[in-house]
Amino acid sequence: MSSALISAREEASKSEYSSAEEKYLSIIQSPETLDVPQNKIVQEQEAAILELGKIYETTKQVEKISDLIDQSKTVLGGSFAKSKTAKIIKTLIEYIDEVPESIDLSIKVTENCIEWAIESKLTFLRQSLQLKLASSFYQKQQYQQGLKIITELLREYKKLDDKSSLVEVQLLESQIYHALRNIPKSRAALTSARTSANSIYCPTLLQAELDCQSGILNAEDKDYKTAFSYFFESFEGFNSQDDHRAIVVLKYMLLTKIMLNLIDDVNLILNNKNVVKYQSRDIDAMKSISLAYSNRSLKDFENSLTTYAHELKSDSIIKSHFNELYDNLLEQNLLKIIESYSTVELSHISKTIGLSLSQVEGKLSQMILDKIFYGVLDQGNGWLIIYDKPRKDATYEGALDLVKNLSNVVDLLYEKASSLN
């Protein structure tokens, strides 16, 4: 190891980043060559690039990471192996991703690196970066651009029979279609991904992502028991690798139990030794919602949504299911209020439940149309008139059955008469 690299690492460890940056750049641009084998020079340049990139990530200087990638292309295009080149470029882009609100720069840098990979005929790197770009488009909610890239990658990987890469592309395809609310296509893409995964060794984190997506799609079908089992497997995978996504999947596990109204199970999960370390505002938010739902308290539910707005509304999956949960709770509260009346003033319902008159009228109208109860809104007088559930008259159904049976008898008699002739 050269003295320059040792010195740069010492400066970095002391958080003297300016002097460390100068020494790392000198190693990258003009490494010590005196009596040093070429492979050692390459190793030191690789270490210098990655360690300098880490410094820029730590100091949140994403523009400098972009510049470092541009500077490194000359070095990487020389004596570096293709696999090592791909690793360095992808790692530097990941450093950009780690800095908050840097998605636009990440997309721009990735697109530039794809062009460079095409010029340098680095096919594997180009494909890997295209998958990364599609994932960035998914995060930025530019779904059509992501799908366009995925379609081309699927064609290439199927031609190469690259099952490992196919799994990642098909999983991303499933996630994008789910975000577009095209559940059938999302499910089809996930089935293809799991089929491809079954024929290869699937890394733990990738398997955890597959299980998480399976849980999400089962939750869409309101099959929360199956969804929980998938989320549990996913959580085990992420937790075993100390991945930050474990807490997200833990929230989904709690979500399924809340949707099933199994509040005792929520407490059991939270007392598990593998879960205790994830205690945070995210988990407090889920506990607050579960308590409000178990108490059938619409006010507590709304307070929880307000207090933990970021934790509950930043995740689209949790937000959509909690909207459904809120609707169910609102319906139950409204039914409880009106069950003892035949006619009731809308203003009384509004005051009792603590919602505006327009909200109450809208929800009651929807419930009447969905036949949750039978009634009519008399908006002129501001009343809700409730009817008894209409009884079915069995006479009509009996008459139809009789006519049908007589028709069958006539047909049989006609057939027998025809045979006699």
Strand content: under 5%
Provide a count of the helices: 21
CATH second-level architecture of the largest domain = Alpha Horseshoe
Strand order of the largest sheet: 1-3-2
- What letter string, H or E per element, gives the SSE order? HHHHHHHHHHHHHHHHHHEHHEEH
Basic shape: elongated
Tell me the distance between the termini. 110 Å
CATH fold description of the largest domain: Serine Threonine Protein Phosphatase 5, Tetratricopeptide repeat
Report Rg. Answer: 31 Å
Helix content: over 70%
Low-confidence stretches: none
Instruction: Please summarize the sheet with the most strands.
Output: 3 strands, antiparallel
Mean pLDDT: 87
The number of domains: 3
Total strand segments:
3
What is the level 1 CATH name of the largest domain? Mainly Alpha
Q: Tell me which oligomeric state these chains represent.
A: single chain
Q: Classify the secondary structure makeup into a structural class.
A: mainly alpha
Protein name: 26S proteasome regulatory subunit Rpn6p
Organism: [Candida] railenensis
InterPro entries: 26S_Proteasome/COP9_Components, PCI_dom, Rpn6_C_helix, Rpn6_N, WH_DNA-bd_sf
Pfam family, one: RPN6_C_helix
